[in-house]
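Give me the fold.
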Amino acid sequence: MTPLIQAEQAVLGSVLLDPGQLGHLSPWLRPEHFYRPAHAALYAAMVKLRADGHPATTGKSGDPIPLSWVTDTVREAGTLPHGLTASYAHSLISACPRATHVPVYGRMVLEGAIHRSVTQHAVRLHRAARTDAVRGGVDETVHHAQALAEVLADLAHRWGTEPRPVQPPSPNTSPLPAGATGRRTGSRRRGVSSRLYQRPARATARRCPLVASRRLGGHRPSADLPSSGRTAPPRRTH
């Protein structure tokens, strides 16, 4: 189950638990924003019952919710093309984490609907462009490009903001004391040079003490050398 489906279930479960939350959703969340047709039918039934003045939607916050709210919602949704069962409605109630967070769940459902709409128009534009490339025309491509631009403009008008240029950050113009840059650079260079000079000698001494002693001009006693169990042959003299 995707997070989008879980958000739809949380929205419906929140409204079933607290019908008063429907007033925070109905002005901007519509049934066609739901991905599953069964969820869209159930939400449409809730909106219709609220418009008809159902007793559960006219009560005060904190009042007990009548059982008829769930049964009437399922019955109203059953008159639509995609009916629901009472057991599924009760499972939606258990899927709701917290009814007071219904605006957040509704926003997730709306964002999913926006993504689907933009993707659908983009796919149509892509298909039209490929068809026009074969036919040698641009009419269908221009038509679908204008449709996609209108969809994006409508979404930006209702839910977003107009694009504005971003001002570049102002550079740091605070002056440094005279000679501070030179002193810092010189000290850093001297420190790096000293470390580079010391580290190879130390690393060589740890890995191969004999080679290190020769490089550094020192001598290592023969007793410190590891014995391999063999004696070296005598050196011939001429």
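The radius of gyration is 38 Å.
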